[in-house]
Each structure stands twice: as structure tokens, then as C-alpha cells.
Prior knowledge:
A: Transcription Regulator spoIIAA, B: Heat Shock Protein 90, 5 helices, 38% helix, globular, disordered C terminus
Amino acid sequence: MNITVDVNELNTEFNVKLKGEIDAYTAPKLRESLFPISEQENVSITIDLTEVSYMDSTGLGVFVGAFKSVRAHNGEFTLVGLSERLRRLFDITGLADIIDIKSGTEGGLE
Amino acid sequence: MSQVYDYIEMKIPAKPEFIGVIRLTLSGIGSRMGFAYDEIEDLKIATSEACTNAVQHAYKDSEKGEVKVSFGLYPDRLEVMVSDSGKSCNFEEVRQGLGPYENGQKVELLREGGLGLYLIETLMDDVKIHQHDGVTVFMTKFLEGEQVEMDAKTVST
């Protein structure tokens, strides 16, 4: 019941791999890892959720916050590797139409 | 409606690190009752949202609180109750302005939270919220195949 945040940085491209559960306990840690990156100018952040086994609205809140911050700093924000369960969470909350999302099979093929 | 049921009650400290413990328990209860994988995941999210609300809002000032989670196991459904004895907030007020995001909304105006109650109402079959000395969230999830029959009964009353 924890989360690991693995950040790979190449110039302005950040690949973030998350592993574990995102809930009220782990969301603050995720926020602390993502926000300093999201506040840089012109970054491209790709977050891989392949190994996220659980997520609720606290996780959605962190991603919305990071997404807003990235956009405010002229960057790009993409979520990849979503399971059907996670994808559903973004669909029913309407976030799938707002945030750039690539589900499991599409992830990482660019 | 059957009155015979099994009842399980847990109390956790009002701290976020214990919400995962409730999810583990719920997984066990849900699979024991024969809920499908997706239904158990729905139950886990809805119950976690209720616990998160209790932990984050009810005990904002004093950290020494408890959250009580109880499970009523019926042949056709699971009832989950999450209650705190912290400060009540105005739930009707909270409910307004909630709900899904709308396409075309300005990015800088997107809310960063407040989806918890919306998810509870979306993922569970029936939700009631009672306010007294705290807030109690009652949630019901029917076993697959039972819901249609139950709905038919309630419509006729």
C-alpha cells in the first residue's frame, strides 16, 4: 500500500513511471514528485500508469493539478498505460476528454 | 427483503494510511460474497472515497478521531456504512458544483478535487448520507442479477 515514483529525465522530456496505489495516503508523495517538474517551462511529461493497481479521486486531483501546471508553463502532459479500470475512472469523470490519455496497448509506441 | 445478515464492523484511526486496510478487508468480503472483479473495484473506490472524506474533512483540527466502517452482508447485496463523529459539513453545499468535468472547460479553471462524492454516487447502486453528530454515508451494492429484481419491487411501491 505505497507508491514508487521513478523519474527519467532527458532534456525537457520527463518519463515518470508509477508503481503501487494512489490514494489519500500516497497522493501527497506523488504531488511532491510531480509539481516541481510541472512548473518548469516547456516540459513534456509522460506518466506511465501500467503498474498502478489502485487509484481514486485523490489521484485524479493530483493529475488535474499537474496537468494545469504543465499547461500554464506551455508544456505537454500525457498519461499512458492505463488499465481498463483506470481508463473507466477518467471516462466517468469526464477527464478523458480533457487530458491526453493513451490506454494500455497504445502506450509507449510513439 | 431478507433480514438475516452477517455484520462486520471496523474502527480505524482517522489517518489516511489506514484506508488501504479497509480496502483489503472489502476485497475479502466482496469476493466471499461472489461479487465480480469490477464490482469489487467499484466498492473499493466508493468506500475509500467515503473514508477519505471522513479523514480529511471531519477531523481537520483535532487529529484524534476514528472512522467506523461497517459491512452488512445480505444474500443479494452488500451495505457499507462509513461514519465519523467529526464536524459536519454542509453536504448539500458540497454536492453542488460537483460532478464530471465538461469537455471544453478552460484548463486553468479545472477543479482539483471534489470528485469523491460524485464517484460514490456513480459507482454504487444506492447512496444515502445522514448528518447528525457527524456524517454517515450508507452505500449499497447489489450482487449482479439481483438489481433488476430489486428495482422492479421498489418501483411498484
